[in-house]
Amino acid sequence: MTRILLSGCNGKMGQAITACVDERDDCEIVAGVDIDVAMRSRYPVFKTFADVTCEADVIIDFSHPSVLTGMLAYAKEKNLPVVISTTGYSDQQTEEIKEAAKHLAIFFSFNMSLGINLLVELAKKAAAVLGDTFDIEIVEAHHNLKLDAPSGTAIMLADGIQESLAEPYEYVYNRHDRRMQRPKKEIGMHSIRGGTIVGEHQVIFAGRDEIVTLSHSARSKAVFAAGAVNAGVYLAGKGPGLYNMKNLVESK
Question: What per-residue confidence (pLDDT) applies to 175?
């Protein structure tokens, strides 16, 4: 039985993870950490990691970038693996995660959906075949409460595509201040925010007289919750290193 310490437990994703764990018999949430300490489930909730008194096997984090440093310090102190599902990290914070992975098992993915990770692999393959002759654009849409733009998943898609290209491409987030022909070596990223959209991602390869579009649509937060819980169960007991969805899929 994998014992989970859930960071961001009272947020929407935290509650989705709680519901997911309630339906499983291979793991349990022993405590939560959240700035809102209301007990919305059967487990205790602590305001900070320093307040936690429960023993756990893994931390699952769906909270806020500001939590990162304190969480990693606690994880190092307790030698706990961490599943990081939060997005919106700065480059400096991403380096902080990579440095921590030298001492801890860290599962880090911008998106916990199996379908999205398949989309990344398909986009990499398409870029290898089409990239030199097709323009590449990424369009993502999320609910109106999402704070970061472009989404972490859009960046993950762009990074995957970049791996398949012969030369580095520039990421362009908007063109409203540009009056120029579109340069060849760029990946455009466009964000839509509205309503209760869970998550929509399109990768568009636009060539001469033909367009190839790859897309993924998430219809509920449950797909991300299930992925995070699977990652937590997988990561418990693992040695130091940076793990991702590809590792999880290959372990099946």
Answer: 83
Look up the pTM and report it.
0.78
In whole angstroms, give the CA distance from residue 182 to residue 232: 43
Residue 94 has pLDDT above 70, yes or no: yes
Q: Which of 142, 190, 216, 221 is catalytic?
A: 142
- Alpha-carbon 41 to chain mean position: 24
- Taking CA 153 as the corner, what is the angle to CA 148 and CA 156, rounded to the nearest 5 degrees? 120
Of the residues 64, 78, 125, 146, only one is catalytic, namely 146
From CA 135, how far away is CA 183, in angstroms rounded? 9
Q: Say whether 142 is catalytic.
A: yes
Q: Residue 250: is its pLDDT beyond 80?
A: no
DSSP state of 182: P
Q: Pick from 87, 82, 112, 86: which is nearest to 100 by CA?
A: 82
